[in-house]
Amino acid sequence: MSSSHFRDSNQPASAGRNPVGSAYSRGMQSEGVTTPKSADSGHQETIVVIDFGSQYSRLIARRIRESSVYCELIPHSAPWEMVESLNPKGVVLSGGPASVYENGAPLAPDWVYESGLPILGICYGMQAMVHQLGGKVAPASRREYGYAELLQDEPSDAIFDGTPESMQVWMSHGDHISELPPGFSTLAHTDNSPIAALGDGNGRLGIQFHPEVVHTPKGRQLIENFLYKICGCSGAWTPGNFVAETVESIRRQVGDGKVICALSGGVDSAVAATLVHRAIGDRLTCIFVNNGLMRHQEPERVQETFEKHMAMNLSYVDASEHFLGALRAVTDPEKKRRIIGEEFINVFEGEASRLGRVDFLAQGTLYPDVIESQVPGDDVSAKIKTHHNVGGLPDHMRMELVEPLRYLFKDEVREVGMELGLPREMIFRQPFPGPGLAIRIIGEITHESLETLREADRILMEEIEANGLYDDLWQSFAVLTNSRSVGVTGDFRTYGNVIAIRAVTSDDAMTADWARIPYDVLARVSNRICNEAPNVNRVVYDITSKPPGTIEWE
Ligand code: XMP
To answer: Looking at per-residue confidence, does 331 or 19 come out higher?
Structure first.
């Protein structure tokens, strides 16, 4: 499990919160969907991270949150009106793959410099700032990649508080600063970069290295110096504050209305439901939809856990035949997701009219889902997959979304779950995607393919748990591939299905590595699947990290 994003859950709830949700997200519009009208994101101060497209941008955001300060990643095209309502305390300009002297290289918007906010430019972000403020950036004679020794020229600068005058940092750049902008001085250098850190003594700083990666051991201290000593943040981003503020904002959003909440059995929807329940009590009804795409005995387990631990209204809907009918002969992954999304909406609408005047639908959408789905107007992040729970609601649907977790990373959700007193088995359950087994069956979904996959997956999970691996894995599951292979069982030739095993470690699903499961466990899994799952004669282990793969196969 990754380190805490919240510093201390016992700090008092903060006063004077920002009364609006994310201006940035409220500004989003896309074809065929309405703007998600989410509950407030529950922050009273924000660090704004301008994303220039570095592989590390999201890591910067995570690090800032780990230091108890709320932050949001925004595209460099975001106008000041969107940012202002976030109550920004400072701006981080992220790294990025471009060179500032290339045509069309992204630059920071003017408001960054006009607002007077403290700025921390990291790598490309520093170069953009230098370029925009009248300094010079040039290609370095040698690319610098990897560890470097940083030597401080101005050790008394606040950014260096609590750090040694010489320390290890992680570099990854081709360009360097050849001339300081007016008013700036060099704060530190390395062998290769005469200007590896710079500042104007007025809260504007640039660093050539990456403080967000573990290879910069004092990186956290540097980030916290920026947040607390330079931006004057108060560190109010704690689970206790989040719960108190979110409950309040849900009350404000919902008024005396009724809410339905889609429950999946995972931690996200359980935490979302619990927050809504705290806010409005019995005006919340949870709906658990059996879509026919769940793991072995999952519908039974979800109902049991829910009844045992959550004293809320629950409506169980078995819509499996509807879903499977709508998915008949569909093989395209995005089409599967779209159909499943539509079917869920149909069920929710049916339940809403059965319950009489329900105006709100609560969902456990998370920040990575939001970032990974296309953000219109964001020219930096490319669309990866459509998360069916992100795009807002169809135009014809009159319910408004309540998404209390829309700005949280997964481990923050788990911490909120603990704060709310949810059971461990729920909080640390491995994530399971909304479209379920549909995106783990490559090709058409049939009763037979579901049965084969469920059996293979059941065996895998039994072995993962029996061997004490469950908690170390972000996710582990079986995939039914669309390959057939020749095998031999007894004296007979077989032509059967190929099952792939996927098991990954990860902090937040944005990146992941394939898990080094012990060979003897893999051997047992393979043996059992070939013997016990119908029509399977081959098992392969997926050794792809993310990137370049994704966690799910579709
Ligand atoms: P990928 O496959 O994109 O998955 O690396 C990242 C995380 O998201 C889950 N996932 C989904 N969750 N609807 C969901 O609710 C989806 O369409 C979806 N696709 C992937 C996946 O299981 C992993 O945890």
So the answer is: 331
